[in-house]
Amino acid sequence: MSPSTSPRFFTEREVARHSTKDSCWVLLGTRVYDVTAFLRMHPGGEALIRSRAGKDLTQVMEGPPHRHSPNARRWLEQYYIGELDRESGAEEVQTLRVRRKASEEAEEKSAEKTSKVEDEDENSPYKLCSSVDLDKDLVDWRKPLAWQVGNLREKYDAWVHQPVDKPIRLFGNPFMEAATKTSWYWVPIVWLPIVFYLSWHCYTTLAQGNTRIELTSDFSIPIPKHVFPVLFMIGWFLWTFIEYCIHRFVFHMKPPAHNYYLITLHFLLHGQHHKSPYDGSRLVFPPGLASIVVGLFYMSLCKTLPETISVSVFVGGLGGYVVYDMIHYYLHYGSPKRGSYLYSLKAYHVKHHFEHQRSGFGITTTFWDHPFNTVIPDEKF
């Protein structure tokens, strides 16, 4: 709801009726929020919100068990739909509906006075978002963002770490825009056949018994086929370290405030994901971009290890990457079972997005956050 329009009013009975997965409303004091679109995204799971539907979340937002961050509170405001009229009883419902209808008519008249973007598609998702207050927001969401963010300079870091539930358009050119989007299923479609083929190739090659590691000119160690799973897991473990380093040192570099191009590059690589963390088309690596990292990983191993061994380690790392991208997508859109490993990972990753952007860089595991001292601290009350 635009801050310039009059709020709608609801009775407690009306709010209480919206407690299903198709329509879920909650209260924060007297403010009413329709959080239906957020059910799948909530780190605590859909059932947790539905159990509190129609109720006041003031105490819940403060915690325990979890104190919601300022970013989480800003996020909630995107779902604001009106105010609770506590003084209205059942006999005043009709009067309340009249007031609401008058409010809606006033909104329609106000909207007619607002200039429309003529070239915007009628079914575009950008029209489904709540209107942007251009006096407060630092960019124009009706235009491509890629060439705007560099002008934010010293304001960029704070702006990009205030997430919103709005789709992002990076480029005006439709082909360039399409190239930045990847559906999650393309990751297994492109990479899993390579993982399966190279795994079979390495195992059958090792089974021939000709693979050896030469320690000296007179001494070498044979590598039997049952060592392949060990080499595969070593590659997977190496990937978790690469994953951590890329996320921390590349994706979370802090571009200089005066450098337009580095700010733009950061936004294209990862900043857009933090600004709009639930943009489902930008949660996994495009295969073209991923192939650069995959190729560098492969060449590094081939220069340091014998051929079959290097490929065995490489295929484990490639498998780890596929799992990484799938887990990352699931952490944003899945609803893991409470108490499970993925449930704790989802809560950890959401904290990284909403509150601790300078820590919590592990995605598939929090292992590397410990030696590098970037573990997200436990909350204390």
TrEMBL record:
One of its GO terms (molecular function) is heme binding. Residues 98-124 are annotated as: Disordered. Binds 2 Zn(2+) ions per subunit that likely form a catalytic dimetal center. It comes from the Eukaryota. GO terms for biological process: ceramide biosynthetic process; fatty acid biosynthetic process. Residues 101-117 have a biased composition (Basic and acidic residues). Zn(2+) 1 binds at H247, H252, H270, H273, H274, H328, H332, H352, H353. It holds the Pfam family Cyt-b5. Its cofactor is Fe cation; Zn(2+). Heme binds at H42, H68. Residues 7-85 form the Cytochrome b5 heme-binding domain. Keywords: Endoplasmic reticulum, Fatty acid biosynthesis, Fatty acid metabolism, Heme, Iron, Lipid biosynthesis, Lipid metabolism, Membrane, Metal-binding, Microsome, Oxidoreductase, Transmembrane, Transmembrane helix, Zinc. This is Fatty acid 2-hydroxylase. Pathway: Lipid metabolism; fatty acid metabolism; Sphingolipid metabolism; galactosylceramide biosynthesis.
